Write the structure tokens for this entry.
Amino acid sequence: MHTFDCPRCFGKGRINAFSHVIAGVCFKCNGVGTITQKSKPRVSKKFAIGIVIKGGEELFPLFHINAANVNQAVSKAEVQLSRGAYDVTNVWADAEHHS
């Protein structure tokens, strides 16, 4: 079993923004601050997706996506963009860096 800090309340067990609902108790961890599960938690990063549309116009960041690596982020973005109105010539992803 793997125990780790709750990703919703960051291990605090409470969320101040929801203090008006059951005193802000985190529903994901039931106020404990940790979560236990059988499998290891998946590690994903947030990537900013940029595109170049026909005509050479660059749009960055167009949107953000969570993925395990850059290749997966680009693949997910290409699927989403294929459903849209953009005529895309190039897609790329840049990892978000948070301190």
